[in-house]
Amino acid sequence: MKVLVLGGDGFCGWPCAVNLADQGHDVLIVDNLSRRKIDIDLEVESLTPITNIKTRLQAWEEIGGNPMQFEHIDIAREYDRLVALLQKEKPNAVIHFAEQRAAPYSMKTSATKRYTVDNNVNGTHNLLAAIVESGLDIHVVHLGTMGVYGYGSHRGATIPEGYLKVEVPQPDGSRFKEEILHPANPGSVYHMTKTLDQLLFLYYNKNDQIRITDLHQGIVWGTNTNATNRDLRLTNRFDYDGDYGTVLNRFLMQAAIGYPLSVHGTGGQTRAFIHIQDSVRCVQLALENPPKQGERVKIFNQMTESHQIGELAKKIAGLTGAKLNYLPNPRNEAIENDLIVDNRCFIELGLKPTTLDDGLLTEVVEVARRWADRCDQSRIPCMSAWTSTQAQAIKQNP
Amino acid sequence: MKVLVLGGDGFCGWPCAVNLADQGHDVLIVDNLSRRKIDIDLEVESLTPITNIKTRLQAWEEIGGNPMQFEHIDIAREYDRLVALLQKEKPNAVIHFAEQRAAPYSMKTSATKRYTVDNNVNGTHNLLAAIVESGLDIHVVHLGTMGVYGYGSHRGATIPEGYLKVEVPQPDGSRFKEEILHPANPGSVYHMTKTLDQLLFLYYNKNDQIRITDLHQGIVWGTNTNATNRDLRLTNRFDYDGDYGTVLNRFLMQAAIGYPLSVHGTGGQTRAFIHIQDSVRCVQLALENPPKQGERVKIFNQMTESHQIGELAKKIAGLTGAKLNYLPNPRNEAIENDLIVDNRCFIELGLKPTTLDDGLLTEVVEVARRWADRCDQSRIPCMSAWTSTQAQAIKQNP
After folding, report:
1. pTM score > 0.90 for this model?
2. Is A190 considered catalytic here?
3. A12-40 as b/e, with b when 16 or more CB fall inside 10 Å?
4. Of the candidates B272, B265, B274, which has an alpha carbon nearest to the alpha carbon of residue B151?
C-alpha cells in the first residue's frame, strides 16, 4: 500500500515507518522535525545518538530496505502543501503521529499548553479537511492514547475498545440502550487534545464517511525494533528527560546509570504498557485491516499489559539493584487506580504480545548503559507541574 | 460586577453587553470585529444599519446608560494582550461569545472549516489558559449550542441539561450508575467546535477549578431588546443571508419582502428557539448565579420552545400571506426529528419565557419591512453545502 506516515521522524513514527517499509509498503514520511527542535529548546538530547532524517533514509536504502521518501511539511500550518501532497501521492492510508505527545511538556507553561492545543487540533483537523478536499478515499490511522479514558474512575470495570454500552433510564421505567463513545476523562492538556481528536473523527466519519482507525495506545517502552536494529544509523530515539521520557524507559535508564528510580506520588498509579516492537506491529495490523466504507470509527486499545508504577520500579530495582526515590507527584491525578483493559481487537488480528520479561528489560538497560555518558543528569527530574501548588512542591523537592 | 464580554459586538454579544450595563454591571467589551469583516468578505450587510462600536458606546452613554469600555483584541491570536487585560481589569466574570457561530459558513469551504476550528478552539483555550496564568478566580459564562446534543437520535427522550444519567451493565449482572457529559453529536464543523469547547471546560474545571457555566442555546430570533430599542444607534444586527441568517428571522424577513419562505428539506426538522430578549436575560441570570468553588461545569439549556421548521414556515405564511418554497437541504441531517428539552434551570432562576406570539413575530416583520430596500435578494439562498453531493443539488436548484 501507499502510506504517508505523518510524524514519521519521532519516537513511535520512525520505527513504524521502517517496519511498514520492511513489510513491503510504499512509505512517505511527512514531518516538520518539531520533536528535534523541542529538544533544542529544552537543551536536552535523545540518550541514543540519532542521525538526521536524510541519513536515516540513506542507511535504510543502503542495507537493502524498501526505499522511503521524506517531505518536510508542518501539517498544522502548511495546509495547501498537505492537500497538494495527497492529490499527488494518492495514498491508500495516512498514519497520523504528528502531534505533540508529552503530557509534562503540555503542562509546562501557558505557551506549551497553547502550542499543544493549537498544533494537535489544527494538525488533525487539517488532515481531515484535506482528505475531504482531495475527494480521495484515504484510511486514517491515528495514534491516540489510553489516557482519553482517564484513570481512577472505572471501579474495577474493564475499559472497552472505545465505545461503552450504556442504558439510559426513561421516565416510564424502561431503559434505552445505546453504545456511546466512551466518556472522556483526560489527565493533562496533551491527553485532552486526543479527546478533541476523537470528536473530530466522530464528525468527519459521520459527515464525510472518512474511514478512521483510532489507536488508544499505552505507554511505549523499549527503543529499537528488529528493523531499526539492523544499522546503527537507524537507531531510534530514547528520551529520558522529565518532559519526554516515558516512565518505564526512565526507570531503566536510571537503573543503568545508578540514579535512584523517580517514583512520583505513592506509585499506586496503574498504567497500560506496550513494547515498541508491538506498537509498530499494531499499526501495521490496523493499516492492513481498515474499516469498511460507511463503518464507524474503529477504536483499538493498543496495549499489552497493565502495571502499577511503584511495582514496576520495585521489579527493576530487584533486577538491577537500583534504589527507589519517592518524590512529590507533579500530576493532578488519583493516588491509586486500577486499570483493566480490553485489547481483544489486536489479539484477534494476530498480535502476539511481547511481555515485560527480564530479558527485554535488560536489553533496554544495556542500551542505556552504552550511551550513559550522553546523559545530562540535571534533566532527569520532572520540572513540569500540573498546578501552581504542585510546582511549589517540586521546587522544594525536585 | 466587573464583566468582560468577549465578542460583545456581535448579534448576541451586543444586546447582552447593553443589558448587563443596563442592569448596573461594569462592562468591558472585547472584540476583534471579525463578524463585520466576514460580512465584507461575503459582500453582504446586516439588514438593519448598525453603527460602529465607538458610536454604539457613545450613544449608550448619551442616553444615560452605564458607560461601557471597548478593547480591540483577537483572543485567538493575541494571548499576551488577553492575559494583560485580565490582570489589569480583574473581572469577576467573562462572558464568552467570541466564536465563529454560523454552521453554513463553517461548511462553506476548507478555509472556513479551518478558520472555525482554529478560531473557536484557540479562542476558548486561550481564555482558559489566561485565567489560569492570571491566578484570578474568574467565572466563565460560555455561549454553547443545543446542537452539541445533535438532532434525531433521542427517540422521544427529554434532553437533560448537559449531563446524562446512565447505567453501565457489568459482567456480574449489576449496573454501575454514573452521570456523564451528554454524548456529543454535532451536525456541522461549527457545532463540533462547541463540543470541543465542552471538553476544554471539563478539563480546566477539573484541573484548575475554573468556575464555568456553559449555555446550550437554541436558535435566536428577534433583533432588538428593550435596551437596544432606546436609540437607533444602538440597533442590533439582523442577518438574513444564507450563511449567517438564522431560520426564523430569515422567514420573517422573507415574508416582509414578499420572497417565498425557504424551507430546506421536508421541514420536518425540529429545533429549539429563544427570543433575543430572553437570551440576554438568561446570560444575566447565569452571570448572577455562578457555580460554587469546586463545582463541576454548570450546563443550562438556553431555549424556551421547540418547533418544526416547516410548521413555523406555515405559521408565518398564515400570518403574512407568504408562499413556501421547498428546497434541497444543504445539511447532512435527519429528515425529521423530535426535540424535547429540559430547561428547568433558567425557569427556576426566574426566567419568564417570551413565547412565539403573533405580536412579536409581526414586530420582526416590521423591522424587516422598514429596511427592505437594504436587502440584496441574491444573498438569500443558502449556498454552503455539507457535502459535495449536496453542493451539486443546490447548484441545480438554489
Report:
1. yes
2. yes
3. bbbbbbbbbbbbebbbbbbbbebbbebbe
4. B272
Contact A132, B391 (CB under 8 A): no
- Cβ atoms of A137 and A211 closer than 8 Å: yes
Q: What is the pLDDT of residue B398?
A: 67
DSSP-derived letter for residue A185 is -
Of B133, B157, B199, the CB nearest to A184: B199
pLDDT at residue A398 in the model? 67
Whether B184 sits inside 8 A of A168 (CB atoms) is no
| Tens-digit pLDDT profile for residues B335-345 | 999 899 999 99
Q: Kindly report the number of other CB atoms within 10 A of residue B229's CB atom.
A: 14
pLDDT score at A80: 98
Per CB-CB distance under 8 Å, the chain A contacts of B126 are 114
pLDDT in tens, B269-303: 999 999 999 999 999 999 999 999 999 999 999 99
Query: A304: burial class by Cβ within 10 Å (0-12, 13-18, 19+)?
Result: buried
pLDDT score at A128:
98
Closest A-chain CA to B166: A168
Closest partner CB to A122 (pick from B117, B126, B171): B117
| Alpha carbons B44 and B37: distance in angstroms, whole number | 10
What CATH number is given for B2-396 in this structure?
3.40.50.720
Best CA proximity match to B335, nearest among B249, B247, B270, B248? B270
- As a CATH number, domain A2-239+274-304+337-354 is 3.40.50.720
DSSP state of B254: H
CA gap B278, B352 in Å, rounded:
8
pLDDT value of residue A6: 98
Chain position carrying cell 480591540: B72
Give the three cell numbers for residue B152.
434525531
The residues facing A5 across adjacent strands are: A29, A95
Q: Are A3 and A66 in contact (CB under 8 A)?
A: no
Of A286-295, A386-395, B157-166, B210-219, give the lowest mean pLDDT range: A386-395
ipTM of the complex: 0.97
CB contact under 8 A, A199 and B189: no
Q: Where do the domains of chain A lie?
A: 2-239+274-304+337-354
- The string over A204-231, giving b where at least 16 C-beta atoms fall within 10 Å of a residue's C-beta and e elsewhere, is bbbbeebbbbbbbbbbbbbbbbebbebe
